[in-house]
Amino acid sequence: MSEHIVQRKVYFVIFGVLMVGTLLTVLAAFRDLDYLFHGANTVVALTIAVIKATFVVLYFMHVRYSSRLIWVIVVAGFFWLAIMFVFTLADYMTRPNGLTPS
Amino acid sequence: MAATHVDEHGAHAHHGALAHHFDNLEQQREAGNIGMWVFLVQEIMFFGGLFMAYSIYRAKFPEAFAAASNHLDITLGATNTVVLIVSSLTMALAVYSAQTGKRRAQIGFLFVTMLLGLTFLVIKGFEYAEKFRDHLFPGASFNWEGAGDPNQVQMFYWIYFAMTGLHALHMIIGLGILAYLIFFAWKGRYTPEYHSPVEISGLYWHFVDIVWIFLFPLLYLLGRHVGGGH
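Predict the joint structure of the above. Result:
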């Protein structure tokens, strides 16, 4: 049996990372970051969320210790999600009033 | 695939949980994990469509979305985020206990995970009740007095209820899975050799946690920097 058993210590560290990430998300949300660039708050919120999700996938879901085949399946999932977002937004953004606030 | 076929009475001692179409438990475990991941990829696309809809309408109606979002209860939303993260930790520890053959700890962690899942749903229920009371559930009785175009605000609440509702449905299914696991863990079915059900249920539970990791900032926090609390 080649199953990798993740040690409890790792789980507690990841838990700590997720809690700190949640705290940072809330703190950042109440600060107006638009002076950096327009929409900076959303970028910061999503960056923290992506980092949190990556830690969950790699450690809680054991992908870091999983076979290549599982890596391919996980990456393919997010790649197809990206295709949906990129193509849909490309369509909307190239139409008159496509994404213009109304 | 292999030329040699070992039947049930052959040279290998068979584990009771090994299905006859697998060569060994390791292959069976890997197949189970792959199956669950393929399902989760489908789930990514399933929720992805809603995140797509959210992105388009938020770009179209930025002010109304910010005003509507600021009306959500940030304390309850943040509490639920913490509840789910703790439940993911206890689920991971339940898998660890199964892997290392600690039956009592496994049942305990599964039970705590279930309680946290229930806590999440109860808090969500209070939030929903408040929204219904305030006529913020989309439909004929929808009523919005605050800033922003009421129709655009209603769009936010459509998306809010669709996304959190679908997420809550996944939580309810997760509670059923946990009840199943607790029953069979109690009967002693899961051992260090065989615990695939616990492991792949863990994958499902963590996925549902990931969805909430995105829902919380996107739904509850998007307009706080312009409007503050309500």
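Residues 68-93 of chain A form the longest helix (26 residues).
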